[in-house]
Amino acid sequence: MDEELKLTEYDSSGGNEDRVLWEVGLPAPDDLTPLTLQLIPAELASAFRISPESSKTMNDVNRASLNTFSSLQRWHSQDMASMNNSNLKLFCEERTREETVTEKDETDLAREGSDPRKLRRVESGGTEEADSSLCNENYADDSSAKTLKRPRLVWTPQLHKRFIEVVAHLGIKNAVPKTIMQLMNVEGLTRENVASHLQKYRLYTKRMQSNEGPSSSDHLFTSTPVPPSLRESGESGHLRNTNGHMATPTLMPYQPQMVPMPMMGMTNGGHVGIPVGYGVGPPVGFHYQYNMVQQRDWSGNNFGYYHPVASNDK
DNA sequence: TTGCAAATAT
DNA sequence: TATATTTGCA
C-alpha cells in the first residue's frame, strides 16, 4: 500500500522528476539489472541464431521510463471510484491518437487499410498489449450499455461460493438465473452469466448424483461442496423446523470492500484482472477500472473479477 | 423466462 | 486447452 500511496502522490509537475517513484518493498537500484544491459550475450545469440537485440542506450531507457510513468500517472489520475466507460473512451481515444502519430512516423504503405489493433499487436513488444486490449470495440461505444460486450467473467471459488449460497438459500426449485442474480447482489453480474454458470453447475451436480464423479474440469465446483438442500430434487432450500414453520437459512448480505492494488509488472500473455465494482444494494452501473482491484467478500476472500484477455493470434 | 446443446470466443 | 459466452430452439 505504500507503493500505492507513493504512486498516487507522485506529481511530475511539482516535484523533483529525478526522484525515485517508489522505494518501499522494492529491490535497491543496485540489485536491479540495468535495462541498458543486453540479456543475451552476443556469443550466445549467434550460437542459437538469435538476431541480436538492438542495444539500448540510456536515452532509450529513459524515454521508455517516461512513457511508462506518464501512462501510469494517467491511469492513477482517474478517480477510481467514479471511473466509467466515458473515461475509458477518452483514454482510448487519447491512446489511439498517440498511436496514429507513431504509425505515421513509421510510414509503411503495405500496412495501409489494415486493422490498427492487429498492427499494434504485431508491433508492440508486448508490454502494451494488455492495456491496449482494453481499448477495443468492446468499450468504444458507451451510448448503449446493452450493446457493450462485457469482459469475460472469471468464476473464482469465492464468487462460486456466493452462487452456491444463494442457490442453497433459494432451493433447487427456485434457483433460476434471474432470482439467483438478484440475490447474489453482485454488481455487473448478468442473468446470462448466472444462467451459463447454473447450466454448468447443474451438469456437475447431475454427474455427481449419478456417481460419475467429478470431471477434470470440475475444479471450481469440487472446491465448494454441494449443499444438502441441492441434492434433494424438487425440495426447497427452506428448512422446516419442528413446528412445521419454514426456517430460511440466513443469507449473508453482500458487503464488499474495495482493495486497490496497483497493476505493476503485468506482462503480455497474462490475463489482466479487470474487476467489476461490486456494489452494496441494487446493481447500478457497470464500472470498468484500469487498475487491479481485488474484490473481497465479508470474510476477506477475494471474489470474482472480469478480465479482458489479451488476444493472441492463433 | 428458462433450460439445454452446440458453436464460438477468449 | 479450458471455460465463459452466445446462439438458437423448445
Task: Describe what this molecule looks like in 3D.
The chain has 314 residues and is mainly alpha-helical. 40% of the residues lie in helices and 6% in strands. The protein has a two-stranded antiparallel sheet. A two-stranded antiparallel sheet has the order 2-3. Strands 4-5 form a two-stranded antiparallel ribbon. The longest helix is centred in the first third of the chain and has 21 residues, at 85-105. It is elongated, with a radius of gyration of 24 Å. Mean pLDDT is 53; it is low at 1-26, 72-146, 232-248, 255-303 and 308-314. The protein binds a DNA duplex (10 and 10 nucleotides) through residues 149-150, 152-155, 176-178, 191-193, 195-200, 202-203, 216-217, 220, 271, 307-312.
Instruction: Report the uncertain regions.
Output: 1-26, 72-146, 232-248, 255-303, 308-314
**What is the tally of beta strands?**
6
| Distance between the ends | 38 Å
Helix content: 25-40%
**What count of helical segments does DSSP give?**
12
- Estimate the strand proportion: 5-15%
Rg to the nearest angstrom? 24 Å
Strand order of the largest sheet: 1-6
What is the averaged pLDDT score? 53
Category by helix and strand content: mainly alpha
Major sheet, described briefly? 2 strands, antiparallel
**What's the helix-strand series?**
HHHHHHHEHHHHHEEEEE
Give the overall shape, derived from the CA principal axes.
elongated
